[in-house]
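Researcher: Here's a chain I'd like modeled. Treat it as a single chain, no partners, no ligands.
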Amino acid sequence: MYLPNSIRGILFDLDGVLYVGNQVIEGAIDTVSDIKKAGYSCRFITNTSTLSLSSLQQKMHRLGFAINENEIISATRATLIYLQQFTNPVCQLLLAEDVKKDFHAFKQSAVEADFVVIGDIGDQWSYPLLNQTFNLLVNGAQLIAIHKNRFWQTEHGLQMDIGGFIEALEYASQTQAIIMGKPSTDFFNAALMDMQLSAEHVAIIGDDIDSDIGGGQQAGLFGIQVKTGKYREQYAKKSAIKPNMTIDSIAELKEFII
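Model: Modeled as a single isolated chain. Structure tokens:
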């Protein structure tokens, strides 16, 4: 099976597809370089909310990838664009310190807020923090989730992601979060707009069958599943989502390009 002739652009998920933690997946650097040289428009998408855009690009360069910051489309970047449409919004930012740098233009408060923005904060979660956030929501704050992933792959194995905390806050406060990252169709549409390509001309390659493949297919993209990162065969078999193509790793992608 080959990639359809209609494909002109590729969205690469980052963590789990190109690298895991600080370990580059074998063949990833050469594959990205070859795909670019072949003339495909490329964007690099991520729900990662532990690094600012600048830090994320620096990490990519440090790992050996020749990627510009404007080629990276992160869920935090989508959140910034969303908040900029409001006049002086007050935010409670439950984000990694590095990521907060991207939100420096917004007023912050843990007592009265228009928006609660939640990303990856690791072991900072506690019952007092959840309850503080719950009270902001019942008093009218809008919940914004950078993403709602169930789990993610670390160098030490699978780890619970923020999706469970988002679900708990939605249930307790009887509110619905705005999801900024994958699998939101709006997120994929923003990437397509940036590439100036329509969905039928773009493929998404990812390790997460829910957020990457399911979200991409919902937006009309060709879904390519890799068996690296958080991929687990039994989980994939139980899923109702069926990738258009499945390959062992990113290194195989160029073999399927005509």
